[in-house]
Design a protein that fits this description.
The radius of gyration is 51 Å and the shape is rod-shaped. The longest helix is centred in the first third of the chain and has 42 residues. It has four helices and no strands. It is about 90% helix and about 0% strand. The relative contact order is 0.03.
């Protein structure tokens, strides 16, 4: 086998070193990417919900769906409430008109007592005069 000149050996060694550097670069990049993916997976596992949490939230969502009131339903309910309040207001007004105010009651009671006292006095005067 013929001997290769030193320059060829230098070129082969350089190419071999370059090849090792390229392989090392890609290996390092792959390892870094794998580490980053591992960290991302860890964050996902940390932030993800367990089966029990998903079940609980599913129950909460079902409860909300069952008790949810739409805007239309709320408007209808408000309209009904306003109608009922109006009926109650009318009824209260009728009660006020049909009943005697407290001051008028006291005034008529005092007047009745005064007339009763006058009648008693009249009876006493008539019986005492005989």
């Amino acid at each position: 086998m013929p001997e290769l000149p030193a320059i060829v050996w230098l070129g082969i060694t350089g190419l071999l070193g370059l090849l090792i550097a390229v392989v090392a670069y890609f290996l390092k990049r792959t390892m870094t990417t794998t580490d980053n993916h591992g960290a991302a997976i860890g964050k996902l596992e940390k932030n993800s919900a367990t089966k029990d949490e998903v079940k609980k939230h599913g129950e909460d969502i079902n409860h909300i769906k069952q008790t949810y009131v739409t805007k239309e339903d709320m408007k209808e309910m408000r309209t009904e409430l306003r109608a009922e309040i109006e009926k109650i207001s009318v009824a209260v007004g009728e009660i006020r008109e049909a009943n005697l105010p407290k001051e008028d009651f006291y005034r008529s009671h005092i007047e009745t007592n005064r007339k009763l006292e006058q009648l008693q006095q009249l009876i006493v005067d008539r019986l005492g005069g005989q």
